[in-house]
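Retro notes (design track)

What went well: tokenization of the new backbones is finally stable.
What didn't: we kept losing track of which sequence belonged to which structure.
Fix going forward: every design gets posted as structure first, then sequence, in one message. First example under the new rule, 98 residues:
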């Protein structure tokens, strides 16, 4: 498939990203289940990952991939200096006291 920048996205890259995301979330779910079983067996309860945290992790990974795609499109349209100045201006505006 072609994105807005015209660069072809390799199917193996998409599969790889999906497998990494599934692997991380699965590992976290297994750890959550293990901690729940340990708590039921009378062992000291350890606070673990919550489904909310796992959802945030998945969202973060998704947004990371989306950001990479957006950056490649921006780099084709604007110069690096213009992108840097725009980013710094927005950051300064967001950090300014209200």
């Amino acid at each position: 498939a072609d994105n807005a920048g015209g660069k072809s996205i390799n199917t193996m890259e998409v599969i790889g990203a999906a497998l990494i995301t599934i692997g991380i979330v699965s590992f976290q779910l297994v750890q959550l289940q293990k901690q729940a079983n340990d708590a039921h067996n009378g062992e000291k309860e350890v606070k673990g990952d919550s489904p909310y945290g796992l959802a945030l992790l998945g969202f973060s990974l998704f947004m990371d991939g989306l950001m990479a795609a957006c950056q490649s499109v921006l780099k084709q349209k604007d110069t690096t200096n213009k992108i840097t100045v725009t980013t710094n201006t927005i950051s300064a505006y967001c950090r300014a006291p209200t």
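Added context from the reviewer: The two ends are 44 Å apart (CA to CA).
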